[in-house]
């Protein structure tokens, strides 16, 4: 018997030894329970989320080109959102994405209990700060969802992969609840974050307040101007009306609007009162280091000495004769007031017309000169790919490159100047290292004024002070009442004169004008137009550039200083490069070639105020897994859009 | 069947006379790790002197002593010697050999001797015969030499007088001597693995023969897992590679020579094409897993240890077996689920030292380059496309005029100033064909030398080879060098113990420009560079866009890789038929890769240098030096034992064993920026930021216990069973172990008695069947069950406190239940040999099911916020067949051979968690490789035609602004609209399966002929059916914006209306739709039938002509063999694929076809044997 079990015993001991031999665990990776326990872990985890904040990167004009999607600026290609038949329900992807939300929720739910139990290593104030950053990021991510999709699921924790759990978690909440959730997160962020961050270029308390004013103003004005449409919870045709789980939903819209506007005002005041405007508007956008500028609450730093280098190419694109695939529209340029505070059309405004740059810029709001290039502006102190230069190789702006290839074109003839520094080390094709502004307090000034007026129909003393501060910094007449009194709404060439089909109050319009001008080329415009519902009247809307055919064409056909002549070929001939002078004396960038999709002008479909949710998301949330009855999905589509890949919105 | 004997590779000859041979010895004096220094005692045979003292010693012992002292061979029949020898008494000091022999044989009344060169032949005196008869007897002695086709002497060849038991065998120099009963006798020469030959003596006294190798002979021994097996007795699907396929092939890797040789062994060009250092991807019998959570590559064993076949020296290889089904691969268990390639390298052979030297010199160039348009047509193509898109022209009139002037030779400047710099885009006017500018032809060479020999106690094999291969980049000089060295010693310690040592050292050095070390960015660039981009500026400096500055001056990426294999084996034979093998091996790979970036410059219009930025990742003027070290160690051990019993036609063989594998790797990369001078681009000579660029450390291990039982009866009924019990470190303890059984059966019908009368026609007819279960542990994650926090040190792009912060993200998901993939293999085969083994054929049909496959994660609602982890969630069924036929014969002195193989397989997804049957991932019942697309009606010739089409078939879902020159898609489901439905199997709208990109019917054809000294061979390889959807600028020309589009000759065949303003004139019946510079073209580029490519091809892979110099001439040079050859690779390709593509190199990391071209090569060289 003994003999019989011996091999068995040997086998067992071999197997035990083998199991030991096969027990391997990662040699250079950190188990999850050993992480997020110390200050450095928290800082690293949070640092990973900064990449989603808008900042310059890659080739092109960086954040300064964001407004190409609006009526302020134009890129070589028209914005397809404004062209009928160009926006469709995608198959997959899109804004219905929760990866960053999971990322943040993981952190908050791991770290907050540890923080409360005092289990974290390091400075408590710093650990709290990093938790605060994560609340900020959750709010920031959710704000993106609110703007693009409106109603959205509110997820405060990470979920498991069970089909029904995922399906349940996919249920959208009415947008006002989403907005309130965001404000709540921003309050937490404000509570936890420090006034001065633990390291440079990180978020701080004031940013949470600024963000809060932005979100609250957005939602307050959205609810106000879109009320009565399917885009407001409880409104006629609102898709949430058909969802069983929202059967008990009710909303007091007026109270809700009041709530958001009040919150916007209060939060904005915190920032505006503590972070004064910086005296030098221009230098906020072309310096490498903004640490001494209180107005700038958060900025991104660049450094080419690192490997791989961290840089962008914004400066080089501007230095290359003012190209860079953008340009301000005529509508934008005409929004700028005169130095004396009068609109350009007002009697005795002093406006000289727009047949050349000298006249356009004569006695205007200082910000025109800060934001827009004119002949004679210094581009670089060592001209390389800059065509017009003096004997010392200083390169100057002479004429906008309106016939250049897309990437180097000034699309409208009004070239961008914001961000320009004549530093030759950042010249064309070379990397740029100027700081990218992410949040600045001027927005809080504007948010306050607007919320105040929307709430009360009048301006309080703070609004008065803020507005005047903004205009003072722009070196222009501070008395905005002169402007309001001289505003003729019929003569304003601005979509924001209307909300829906209604003309707005001239004071409110001038608040919007101030915002448009102050925040030129900073990426605010399309969001503003959407919340004001100011795109409804964008019908057969032709994008206009500078006045080409009165005088400026001579810059090409008969240039100074032996610059090469450029043949202007009008629309109608073979290979045209400009629009026809019979069409308009202004350059019409999308009417150069008859095949252009926006040749006939921009046309807005109100269903596009909200983006569609991609088809796959419905397919993956049907009541029965794998069912083809997509109406049983726990998600409802946005109004006017179908649950069908590649389908167009109603009205397209 | 006696397995023991086969394992040793030596078979007793069939004649009863056992010849003993006493051979010259080589003494091994010193053994070192890589090289043995050896000294040969050479003898002047005629002047041989020796000392001999004997008193009544046996003649045999005296002869042995004489052999020991002189190295002379003594040839005699042992039985006859015993019968006729008389005792010897002799005394002599320093006597000449011949004198001593005379004295010895004076004492032998019944024996006489003759000396034939180095051999003393002893035979009985026929003293009872008359004098006359004696003379006849002497005339009846036939001598001669036996050699193989390469001129190598064959020792141990049996020489038999037909119809008698009189026989002899050849000595180590191939010589023999035999008495024949009469002058009309017929001699039969036979040798294992060679075709037997019968020669009628017809009164001759010297007969030398050449035996031809019988590669496909049934007696051939095939290496199988942990042993060998006679081909005749195989029951699994095992293919052995005809080693001729490897001979004199001007390729740098074994894989290239194996392509198409074995049906079911598939080798495919990878994305980087012919780039130096790239290897072919390998699979056996097609896709084994979907390949997202696990990989399924064949196990490649070199002398029993896993290794990289592509850096072996092909000349070192003795044999290659491909184990395709479960039963043959079963003993390798968990690592062999998708087949095994067993490579056995050459060992020393008993005999005097033989030296072989081979070389070849090669001239290579690209197989295929796209025809880039000249700058004039290119510019017009782009302008026309821009006009169609509705955007401004790319090239203005002034530039167009300059382009024309430059082509006409009216101006010589390639561009004009742009400020202080030169225009290099749309205002430049050069005319460069960038493909021709970047790729050229180059020379390469290879040398290898082998030494081989030994005594019966100790045999050695040494070899060395050197390969120096230049790539075909014109600018930047890419180069690959490889040095291989092998030392192999087999020692017989005593009757019971053998000890074998095998060391192999491989070093390669890959030296590339840094720019071509960026995962194919260069090939992406070349496709997109415009012909008017100046090659040089008007002052003669390179300009930036050609990437020439980067390639030539921008720095290098140099990889040095050392592979060291050390293996030792102890074989113990306690009893006859009982062997115990104890084996251990270490493989260590050390690699260092040095990369550096030097500053590069372009020049302004005044010739002043301007620092240039190398690529988007680096600042202008940036420099760095980086070194990356990688050390990986692999330890294997195995112990196994086999025992054979044979009784009355029953043969039983059993084997038991276990093996372990343990792998550990560590790597570190470090860099520093700001190199002080480009002369010394090293970290130590740089002053910038210190960076750790990478760091890895991981290990894994496996353990397996295995057993095998073979049973056969009468060589007719064959049975084999295997069982493994495998464990892997990649799974948690409760999921770790798995049992893997397999069985196979074979029936040698031709050996049945009832088959006897047909056996002269059908020498083999063997159906066989096998079934087995194997496991695959090869998950992509090394520790898939461990949830770890990923932390990226200094990786953030958002600078904090002025530097890159460390970042961390949310942990992924893992599955605790992850376990083995189970692979079930069923194989049915038939082996046939006909007409005296001249025609050999094998056929195999297989079904391979991969169950519990680690699939790509299932789809999940986006709200989860993360992808699911890989789990054992899918099932794949792979069915296919292989056919191999070979005919070999000779017509007089013309020997010829025709080989053909064909294989096919189809893979279906049987199970996959995709309940909505979405087409964007796998679904139940899907055939892998399916291409879903629309059916094309055609190109509308006019707006009217398009409007008519749209009146009943809406295409609005696919795009807007349809007009003349756009594609008309068919509305297959008749709903009046062309769409993809919900892109699921149940609702796929107008999509249908229009093709499949899985290669079907792969084939190889091998032709060979020998005539006198000449040999010729040709090898063709191809794929008979394959569809490809090719995309991107290589195919379409106009894709995306100006920076992504391309312009080749073929692209000009695009739609132009009757009233076109294009210089190319109207083209109403084009291949391509209207060209659009931008997004409007995408509506015409949906996957569709019209542009589906036929990816089948046939390629003349190799053609070879050799000439072996006549022996008479060779001998005067004291050599055994001289062969001169010419060999050409990838000579001609037949394919219907779009002309821009090579049908084998359609991939590319930056899009289809953007890759390093494959090579066509011509070569010549010599094979010498001393």
Strand content of chain A: under 5%
Question: Helix fraction of chain A?
Answer: 25-40%
Shape category of chain A: globular
The percent range for helix content of chain B is: 10-25%
Overall mean confidence score, pLDDT of chain B: 85
Instruction: Name the strands of the widest sheet of chain A in spatial order.
Output: 3-5-4
Terminus-to-terminus distance of chain A? 88 Å
Unreliable stretches covering 5 or more consecutive residues of chain B: 1-46, 127-137
Multimerization state: heterodimer
- What are the secondary-structure elements of chain A, in order, as H or E? HEHHHHHHHEHHHHEEEEHHHEEHHHHH
Major sheet summary line of chain A? 3 strands, antiparallel
Q: Calculate the mean pLDDT score of chain A and round it.
A: 94
Distance between the termini of chain B: 37 Å
Q: Judging from the principal axes of the Cα atoms, what is the shape of chain B?
A: globular
Count up the helices of chain B.
15
Structural commentary:
The complex is a heterodimer of chains A (652) and B (1170). With 652 residues, chain A is mainly alpha-helical. In chain A, 36% of the residues lie in helices and 4% in strands. Chain A has 20 helices and eight strands. In chain A, α3 packs antiparallel against α4 and α7 packs parallel to α13. The longest helix of chain A is centred in the first third of the chain and has 26 residues, at 124-149. Chain B has 1170 residues and is mainly β. Helix content of chain B is 10%, strand content 43%. Chain B is built from 15 helices and 60 strands. In chain B, β36 and β37 (650-673) form a beta hairpin. The longest helix of chain B has 15 residues, at 375-389. The two termini of chain B are 37 Å apart. In chain B, 47% of the residues are buried. At the A-B interface, α1, β1, α2, α3 and α5 of A face α8, β37, β38, β42 and β44 of B. β1 (30-31) of chain A pairs antiparallel with β42 (788-789) of chain B.
């Amino acid at each position: 018997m003994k003999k019989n079990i011996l091999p068995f015993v040997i086998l067992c001991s071999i197997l035990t030894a083998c199991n030991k031999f096969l027990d391997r665990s990662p040699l250079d990776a950190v188990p999850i329970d050993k992480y997020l326990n110390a200050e450095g872990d928290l800082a690293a985890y949070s640092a990973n989320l900064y990449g989603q904040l808008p900042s310059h990167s890659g080739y092109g004009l960086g954040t300064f080109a964001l407004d190409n999607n609006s009526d302020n600026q134009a890129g070589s290609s028209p914005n397809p959102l404004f062209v009928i038949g160009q926006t469709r329900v995608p198959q997959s992807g899109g804004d219905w994405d929760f990866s960053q939300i999971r990322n943040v929720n993981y952190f908050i739910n791991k770290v907050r209990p540890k923080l409360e139990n005092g289990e974290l290593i390091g400075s408590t104030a710093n650990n709290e700060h990093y938790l605060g950053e994560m609340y900020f990021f959750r709010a920031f991510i959710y704000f993106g969802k609110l703007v693009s999709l409106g109603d959205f699921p509110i997820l405060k924790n990470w979920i498991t992969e069970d089909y029904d759990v995922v399906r349940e978690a996919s249920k959208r909440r009415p947008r006002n609840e989403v907005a309130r959730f965001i404000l709540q997160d921003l309050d937490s962020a404000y509570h936890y974050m420090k006034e001065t961050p633990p390291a440079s270029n990180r978020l701080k308390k004031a940013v949470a307040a600024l963000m809060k004013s932005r979100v609250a103003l957005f939602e307050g004005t959205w609810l106000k101007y879109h009320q009565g449409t399917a885009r407001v919870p409880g409104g006629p045709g609102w898709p949430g009306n058909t969802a069983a789980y929202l059967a008990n939903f009710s909303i007091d819209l007026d109270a809700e609007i009041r709530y958001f506007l009040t919150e916007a005002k209060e939060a904005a005041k915190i920032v505006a009162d503590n972070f004064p405007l910086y005296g030098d508007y221009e230098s906020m956008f072309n310096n490498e280091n903004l640490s001494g500028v209180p107005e700038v609450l958060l900025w991104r730093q660049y450094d080419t000495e690192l490997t791989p280098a961290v840089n962008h190419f914004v400066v080089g694109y501007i230095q290359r004769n003012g190209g860079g695939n953008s340009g301000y529209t005529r509508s934008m340029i005409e929004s700028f007031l005169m130095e004396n505070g009068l609109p350009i059309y007002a009697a005795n405004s002093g406006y000289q017309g727009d047949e050349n740059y000298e006249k356009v810029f004569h006695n205007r709001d200082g910000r025109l000169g800060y934001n827009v290039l004119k002949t004679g502006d210094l581009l670089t102190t060592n001209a390389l790919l800059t065509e017009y230069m003096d004997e010392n190789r200083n390169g100057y702006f002479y004429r906008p490159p309106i016939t250049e290839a897309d990437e180097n074109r000034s699309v409208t003839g009004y070239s961008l100047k914001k961000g320009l520094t004549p530093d030759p080390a950042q010249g064309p094709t070379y990397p740029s290292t100027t700081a990218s502004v992410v949040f600045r307090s001027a927005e809080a000034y504007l948010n306050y004024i607007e919320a105040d007026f929307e709430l009360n129909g009048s301006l309080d003393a703070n609004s008065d002070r803020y507005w005047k501060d903004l205009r003072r910094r722009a070196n222009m007449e501070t008395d905005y009442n002169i402007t309001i009194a001289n505003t003729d709404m019929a003569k304003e060439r601005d979509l924001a004169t209307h909300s829906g089909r209604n003309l707005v109050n001239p004071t409110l319009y001038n608040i919007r004008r101030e915002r448009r001008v102050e925040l030129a080329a900073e990426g605010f415009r399309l969001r503003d137009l959407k919340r004001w519902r100011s795109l409804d009247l964008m019908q057969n809307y032709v994008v206009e550039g500078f006045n080409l055919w009165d005088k400026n064409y001579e810059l090409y056909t008969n240039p100074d200083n032996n610059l090469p002549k450029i043949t202007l070929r009008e629309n109608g001939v073979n290979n045209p490069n400009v629009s026809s002078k019979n069409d308009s004396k202004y350059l019409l960038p999308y009417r150069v070639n008859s095949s252009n999709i926006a040749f006939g002008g921009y046309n807005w479909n109100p269903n596009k105020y909200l983006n569609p949710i991609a088809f796959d998301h419905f397919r993956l949330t049907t009541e029965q897994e794998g069912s083809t009855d997509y109406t049983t999905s726990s998600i409802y589509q946005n109004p006017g859009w179908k649950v069908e890949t590649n389908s167009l919105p109603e009205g397209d | 069947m006696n397995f023991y004997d086969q394992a040793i590779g030596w078979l007793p000859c069939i004649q009863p006379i056992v010849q003993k041979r006493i051979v010259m010895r080589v003494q091994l004096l010193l053994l070192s790790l890589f090289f043995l220094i050896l000294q040969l005692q050479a003898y002047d045979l005629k002047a041989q002197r020796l000392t001999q003292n004997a008193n009544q010693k046996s003649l045999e012992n005296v002869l042995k002593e004489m052999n020991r002292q002189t190295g002379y061979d003594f040839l005699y029949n042992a039985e006859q010697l015993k019968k006729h020898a008389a005792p010897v008494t002799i005394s002599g000091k320093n006597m000449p050999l011949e004198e001593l022999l005379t004295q010895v044989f004076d004492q032998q009344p019944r024996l006489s001797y003759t000396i034939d060169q180095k051999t003393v032949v002893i035979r009985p005196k026929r003293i009872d015969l008359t004098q006359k008869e004696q003379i006849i007897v002497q005339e009846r002695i036939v001598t001669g030499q036996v050699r193989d086709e390469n001129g190598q002497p064959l020792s141990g060849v049996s020489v038999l007088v037909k119809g008698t038991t009189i026989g002899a065998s050849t000595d180590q120099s191939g010589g023999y001597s035999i008495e024949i009963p009469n002058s009309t006798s017929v001699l039969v020469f036979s040798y294992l693995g060679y075709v037997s030959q019968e020669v009628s003596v017809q009164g001759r006294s010297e007969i030398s023969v050449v035996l031809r190798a019988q590669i496909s002979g049934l007696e051939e021994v095939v290496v199988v897992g942990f042993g060998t097996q006679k081909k005749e007795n195989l029951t699994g699907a095992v293919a052995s590679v005809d080693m001729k396929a490897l001979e004199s092939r001007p390729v740098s890797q074994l894989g290239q020579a194996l392509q198409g040789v074995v049906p079911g062994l598939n080798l495919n060009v990878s994305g980087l094409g012919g780039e130096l250092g790239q290897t072919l991807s390998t699979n056996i019998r097609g896709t084994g897993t979907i390949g997202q959570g696990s990989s399924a590559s064949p196990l490649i064993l070199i002398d029993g240890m896993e290794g990289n076949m592509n850096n072996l020296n092909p000349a070192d290889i003795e044999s290659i077996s491909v184990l395709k089904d479960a039963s043959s691969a079963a003993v390798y268990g968990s690592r062999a689920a998708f087949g095994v390639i067993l490579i056995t390298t050459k060992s020393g052979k008993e005999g005097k030292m033989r030296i072989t030297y081979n070389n070849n010199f090669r001239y290579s160039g690209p197989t295929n380059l796209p025809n880039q348009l000249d700058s004039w047509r290119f510019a017009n193509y782009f302008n026309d496309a821009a006009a169609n898109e509705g955007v401004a022209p790319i090239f203005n009139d002034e530039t167009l005029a300059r382009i024309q002037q430059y082509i006409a030779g009216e101006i010589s400047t390639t561009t004009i100033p742009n400020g202080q710099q030169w225009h290099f885009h749309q205002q430049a006017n050069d005319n460069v064909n960038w493909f021709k500018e970047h790729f050229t032809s180059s020379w390469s060479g290879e040398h290898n030398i082998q030494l081989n020999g030994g005594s019966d106690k100790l045999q050695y094999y040494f070899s060395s080879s050197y390969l120096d291969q230049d790539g075909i980049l014109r600018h930047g000089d890419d180069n690959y060098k490889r040095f291989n060295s092998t030392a192999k010693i087999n020692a017989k310690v005593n009757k019971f113990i053998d000890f074998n040592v095998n060391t192999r050292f491989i070093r390669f050095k890959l030296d590339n420009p840094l720019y071509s070390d960026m995962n194919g960015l260069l090939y992406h660039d070349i496709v997109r560079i415009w012909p008017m981009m100046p090659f040089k500026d008007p002052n003669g400096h390179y300009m930036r866009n050609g990437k020439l500055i980067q390639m030539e001056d921008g720095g290098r990426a140099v990889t040095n890789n050392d592979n060291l294999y050390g293996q030792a084996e102890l074989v113990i034979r306690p009893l006859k038929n009982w062997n115990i093998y104890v084996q251990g091996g270490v493989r260590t790979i050390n690699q260092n890769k040095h990369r550096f970036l030097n500053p590069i410059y372009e020049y302004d219009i005044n010739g002043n240098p301007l620092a240039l930025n190398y690529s988007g990742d680096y600042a202008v003027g940036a420099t760095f030096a980086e070194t990356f070290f990688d050390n990986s160690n692999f330890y294997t051990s195995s112990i196994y034992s086999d025992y054979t019993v044979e009784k009355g036609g029953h043969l039983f063989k059993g084997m038991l064993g276990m093996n372990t594998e343990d792998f550990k790797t560590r790597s570190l990369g470090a860099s520093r920026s700001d190199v002080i001078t480009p002369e010394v681009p090293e970290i130590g000579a740089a002053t910038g930021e210190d960076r750790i660029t990478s760091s890895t450390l991981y290990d894994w291990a496996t353990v397996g216990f295995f057993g095998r039982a073979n049973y056969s009866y009468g060589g007719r009924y064959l049975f084999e069973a295997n069982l493994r019990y495998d464990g892997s470190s990649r799974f948690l303890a409760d999921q770790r172990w798995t049992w893997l059984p397999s069985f196979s059966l074979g029936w040698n019908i031709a050996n049945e008695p009832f088959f006897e009368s047909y056996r002269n026609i059908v020498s083999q007819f063997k159906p066989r069947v096998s079934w087995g279960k194997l496991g695959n542990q090869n998950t992509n994650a090394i520790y898939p069950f461990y949830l770890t926090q990923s932390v990226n040190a200094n990786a953030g792009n958002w600078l904090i406190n002025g530097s890159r912060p460390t970042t961390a993200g949310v942990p992924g998901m893992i599955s605790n239940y992850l376990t083995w993939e189970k692979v079930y293999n069923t194989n049915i085969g038939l082996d046939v040999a006909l007409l005296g083994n001249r025609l050999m054929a094998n056929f195999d049909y297989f079904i391979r099911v991969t169950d519990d496959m680690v699939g790509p994660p299932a789809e999940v609602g986006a709200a989860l916020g993360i992808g699911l982890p890989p789990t054992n969630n899918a099932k794949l069924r792979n069915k296919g067949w292989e056919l191999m036929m070979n005919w070999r014969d000779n017509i007089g002195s013309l020997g010829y051979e025709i080989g053909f193989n064909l294989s096919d397989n189809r893979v279906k997804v049987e199970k996959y968690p995709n309940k909505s049957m979405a087409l964007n991932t796998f679904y139940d019942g899907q055939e892998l490789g399916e291409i879903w697309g629309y059916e094309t009606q055609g190109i509308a010739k006019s707006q009217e035609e398009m409007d008519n089409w749209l009146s009943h078939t809406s295409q609005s879902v696919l795009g807007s602004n349809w007009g003349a020159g756009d594609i008309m898609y068919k509305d297959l489901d008749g709903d009046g609209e062309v769409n993809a439905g919900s892109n699921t199997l149940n609702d796929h709208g107008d999509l249908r399966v229009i093709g499949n990109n899985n290669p079907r019917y792969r084939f190889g054809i091998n032709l060979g002929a020998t005539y006198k000294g000449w040999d010729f061979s040709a090898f063709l390889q191809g794929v008979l059916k394959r569809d490809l959807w090719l995309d991107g600028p290589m195919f379409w020309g106009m894709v995306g914006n100006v920076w992504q589009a391309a312009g080749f000759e073929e692209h000009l065949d695009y739609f132009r209306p009757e009233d076109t303003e294009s210089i190319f004139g109207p083209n109403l019946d084009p291949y391509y739709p209207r060209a659009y510079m931008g997004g409007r073209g995408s509506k015409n580029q949906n996957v569709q039938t019209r542009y589906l490519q036929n990816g089948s091809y046939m390629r003349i892979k190799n053609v070879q002509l050799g000439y072996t110099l006549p022996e008479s001439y060779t001998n005067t040079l004291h050599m055994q063999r001289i062969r001169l050859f010419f060999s050409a690779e990838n000579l001609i390709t037949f394919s219907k694929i779009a002309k821009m593509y090579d049908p084998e190199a359609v991939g590319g990391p930056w899009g289809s076809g953007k890759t390093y071209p494959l090579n066509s090569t011509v070569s010549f060289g010599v094979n010498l044997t001393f």
